[in-house]
Amino acid sequence: MPSLRLLTAAGVALLAAGLILSRSAAPHKEQKERKTAPDFTLKDADGKIVRLSDYRGKVVLLDFWATWCGPCKIEIPWFKEFQRKYKDQGFEVIGVSMDEDGWQSVKPFASEMAINYRLVIGDDSTAQAFGGVEALPTTFVIDRKGKIAAVHVGVASKGDIQNGIEELL
Question: In the annotation, is 72 catalytic?
Answer without folding.
Answer: yes
